[in-house]
Design a protein that fits this description.
- It is found in: Cytoplasm.
- This is Nucleoside diphosphate kinase.
- Its EC number is 2.7.4.6.
- This protein has a 4-stranded antiparallel sheet with strand order 2-3-1-4, sandwiched between helices.
- The chain has 7 helices and 4 strands, in the order βααβααβααβα.
- The protein starts with 5 loop residues before the first strand and ends in a 6-residue tail after the last helix.
- The chain has a single domain, classed as Alpha-Beta Plaits (2-Layer Sandwich).
- The radius of gyration is 14 Å and the shape is globular.
- The model has no long low-confidence stretch (mean pLDDT about 95).
- By secondary structure, the protein is of the alpha+beta class.
- Bound molecules: adenosine-5'-diphosphate (ADP) and magnesium ion.
- Adenosine-5'-diphosphate binds near residues 57, 62 and 66.
Length: about 140
C-alpha cells in the first residue's frame, strides 16, 4: 500500500475486552477516528488459531499464558480500512504494556497489564495481509 492510499488492518478485541463490556467503547474509538469496519465477527479462538496468529511468538516464554488468555473466552475479530490504517490502529492501541501505554490510548486508558491489554493490531503490511487471510479468508480473494 502507498503511504496515503486506503489500507486494511486486522484488529482483535481480546477476551478481556468482551468480559469487561468494553466492545462498544473500543469500536467507537476506531469509528470515531474515521476507520471503516469492513468485517466483524465474534470468535472463540482455538489453540490452533492462536498458534497461527501468534506464530512469531510461539517459542517465547510469555506464549503459554498468552495462549491460555486468548482462548479464555470470545473475542471480536475485525478488519478496518482507512488511510495508513495499520499505523493509525497501532497508535490508537498504545504500547504493549498497559502500565506504560500513554493516556489517551486504549491500553493506556483501560489496561494495567502487559498480557491482558485488550486489543491486537497488525504491525506491518505483511502482517496485515497474513492475518486478514488467516481470520477472514473471504476478504483475500
Ligand atoms: N512480556 C510479556 N508478558 C506477557 N504477555 C506479553 C508480553 N509481551 C507480549 N505479551 C502479549 O503478547 C501479545 C503480542 O506481543 P507483541 O506482538 O510483542 O505486542 P503487540 O500486541 O503490542 O504487537 C501482547 O499484545 C501481549 O498480550
Ligand atoms: Mg505484535
Amino acid at each position: 500500500m502507498s503511504a496515503t492510499g486506503a489500507e486494511r488492518s486486522f484488529v482483535l478485541l481480546k477476551p478481556d475486552a468482551v468480559r469487561r463490556g468494553l466492545v462498544g467503547a473500543l469500536l467507537s474509538r476506531f469509528e470515531a477516528k474515521g476507520l471503516r469496519i469492513v468485517a466483524l465477527e465474534l470468535r472463540q479462538v482455538t489453540g490452533e488459531l492462536a498458534d497461527e496468529h501468534y506464530a512469531e511468538h510461539v517459542n517465547r516464554n510469555f506464549y503459554p499464558p498468552l495462549r491460555t488468555f486468548i482462548t479464555s473466552g470470545p473475542s471480536i475479530a475485525l478488519v478496518v480500512e482507512g488511510d495508513q490504517a495499520i499505523e493509525v490502529v497501532r497508535g490508537l492501541n498504545g504500547a504493549t504494556d498497559g502500565r506504560k501505554a500513554a493516556p489517551g490510548t486504549i491500553r493506556g486508558d483501560y489496561s494495567l497489564s502487559n498480557r491482558e491489554n485488550l486489543v491486537h493490531g497488525s504491525d506491518s503490511p505483511e502482517s496485515a495481509a497474513r492475518e486478514i487471510k488467516l481470520w477472514f479468508p473471504e476478504l483475500s480473494d
